[in-house]
Design a protein that fits this description.
- The chain folds into 2 domains: 284 residues, Aminopeptidase, CATH 3.40.630; 185 residues, Glucose Oxidase, domain 1 (3-Layer(bba) Sandwich).
- The protein has 13 helices and 20 strands.
- The strands form 3 sheets. Strands 1, 2, 14, 15, 16, 17, 18, 19 and 20 form a 9-stranded mixed β-sheet that branches. Strands 3, 4, 5, 6, 7, 10, 11, 12 and 13 form a 9-stranded mixed β-sheet that branches. A two-stranded antiparallel ribbon has the order 8-9.
- A hairpin with a 2-residue loop joins strand 4 and strand 5.
- Helix 2 packs across helix 9 and helix 11 packs across helix 13.
- The radius of gyration is 25 Å and the shape is elongated.
- The protein starts with a helix and ends in a 15-residue tail after the last helix.
- Keywords: Hydrolase, Signal.
């Protein structure tokens, strides 16, 4: 009976959101109700393409429609079919004499590997797998060795002392190294994290040593098996020669050499596509000329579903609902709440404002990438993008962080002016662009502002629930965003992009 009652409430909220009144005020109750809906257990973590994710998309659409936003896209939806996951099939194996590896625990195919392939051959260790000559900087880890038809084992990252060299960094991505290996005739590639990467616990490798998250990438799949192995597995491969990966990592000058064991591996990964949608509405500006220019306010509404390995969960061995109240039901609720107030006050806006709830941010900014590659308005007419990602954890210091403020000339002075009038402690950061959906716009030379209230222990765990949020704090954030959009929408003259160093 309880489940039936809750389901009826969900249907009512989706199609008749009672909390959007004619006044459409920014209130704590409006914010709380929206987060409570999106971050409820019944939404099962909002993984893209699931029935629950579509319920959330329809809920957002109803909010847009009730607030008076006009649709952009088919009935407010911008449909697309991304690859959201790479499933590892049962055939995957990694073996050599005396060792039969376990998938995920010991090794993982990488996203740009050939989907179905196998290789049995010897392994050549080739250091960091670098090969280039730029001015005063040169590397050739393939000098004097023939790797044709064989596996190469190479260290991820860059040699010690070169971590900040931009030339080296561009040539030292895993994908770039794999292409170098192919150019030298390698038939398979084994990556091993260097010590710096192995010791760095991130979203991609929180609790399972140094293996990366297997997730879709935009890079083209290569025609050979590409596998990452743990450092402990690399040590077993090196054991017959009384070497360790730590020793080789420390030497830097080690010449390429052939390992004694023969590696037999099978890669079998299957892309999983889903149908999903960005939810897009627009509030028309009033100026005869400036109304054809657009400010975009966005936030992603997807999350990690039930979690598990390689979903991005920081508790990957725990399969449980990841409600994502802060990440990013908070941002989604904020854009709906601010949109309602902006629509009510549309006569105050010279430029038009697009409101968009992105799907598949957690899979690699796929929703915002699709939006910017298939813009519903001419891309040159999008003047600023404001992104809200995790805005529900305002702490006692009331700190709001805004990155990208230097991406347009008016950004820093405008926000400095606003923060003087705000109860928030606002950090106005010129660069600091990376991290969420606004990056997709920045890469297209569009000014951006990325807003968040900081990290917390509940991030990407099943504990990111409504009860942990600061709803009065988010109300203050929404008030600030509303005022910022009004000011940006009314900037006289041109708004032009300014690149911020290496922020990309």
């Amino acid at each position: 009976m309880l489940k039936k009652t809750f389901f009826c409430c969900i249907i009512f909220l989706v199609f008749f959101p009672h909390f959007i009144s004619a006044q459409s005020l920014i209130t704590q109750q409006a914010i709380r109700d929206r987060i409570a809906f999106l971050a409820s257990d019944q939404m099962k973590g909002r993984f893209p393409g699931t029935p629950e994710s579509w319920v959330c998309a329809k809920f957002i659409r109803t909010n847009f429609k009730t607030a008076g936003l006009e649709p952009l896209g088919k009935h407010y939806f911008q449909y697309f079919q991304p690859t959201v996951k790479l499933d590892t099939e049962k055939n995957n194996t990694f073996q050599f004499e005396g060792f039969n590896g376990t998938l995920i625990r010991d090794y993982i195919p990488l996203s740009f590997s050939k989907r179905k392939t196998s290789l049995i051959n010897k392994v050549i260790f080739c250091g960091y797998g670098l090969q280039f000559n730029f001015d005063s900087l040169s590397f050739d880890d393939y000098k004097g060795v023939n790797v044709t038809g064989k596996w190469v084992m190479i260290l991820r990252g860059v040699p010690g002392g070169f971590g900040k060299d931009p030339t080296l960094r561009a040539s030292a991505t895993d994908y770039a190294k794999a292409r170098i290996a192919l150019r030298n005739g390698a038939a398979g590639i084994l990556f091993v994290s260097n010590k710096g990467l192995a010791d760095k616990k991130t979203e991609s490798s929180p609790n399972y040593d140094d293996l990366q998250r297997l997730r879709p990438r935009k890079t083209v799949s290569l025609d050979v098996p590409v596998i990452q192995i743990k450092r402990t597995v690399a040590d077993l491969l090196l054991q017959p020669q009384n070497k360790t990966i730590q020793q080789l990592d420390s030497l830097n000058e080690e010449q390429p050499f052939e390992l004694i064991p023969t590696v037999n591996a099978v890669v079998d990964i299957q892309p999983r596509k889903v149908k999903t949608a960005n939810v897009v509405g627009v509030i028309q500006g009033t100026d005869p000329e400036l109304k054809d220019e657009y400010i975009v306010l966005g936030a992603h509404y997807d999350h990690l579903g039930m979690g598990g390995f390689f979903t991005g969960s920081l508790q990957p061995d725990t399969v449980a609902i990841h409600n994502g109240a802060d990440d990013n039901a908070s941002g989604s609720a904020a854009i709906m709440t601010v949109a309602a107030q902006l629509a009510k006050d549309h006569q105050l806006l010279k430029r038009s404002v697009i409101i968009v709830a992105f799907s598949t941010e957690e899979e690699g900014l796929l929703g915002s990438e699709y939006f910017i590659e298939h813009p519903p308005v001419p891309i040159e007419k999008i003047k600023v993008m404001i992104n809200l990602d995790m805005v529900g954890h305002l702490d006692q210091q009331k700190e709001l962080y805004i990155g990208g403020c230097g991406t347009f000339a008016q950004g820093i002075p405008l926000l400095d002016s606003l923060k003087k009038e705000s109860a928030l402690k606002v950090y106005v950061i010129a660069g600091g662009v990376g991290g969420s959906d606004h990056v997709s716009f920045y890469r297209k030379n569009i000014p951006v502002l990325g807003m968040h209230t900081g990290g917390h222990p509940e991030y990407h765990t099943p504990k990111d629930d409504l009860e942990t949020l600061n709803i009065p704090g988010e109300e203050k954030v929404c008030d600030f965003v509303y005022e910022a959009i009004k000011k940006i929408a009314n900037i006289p003259g041109k708004i032009e992009f300014i690149k911020q160093g290496d922020s990309d």
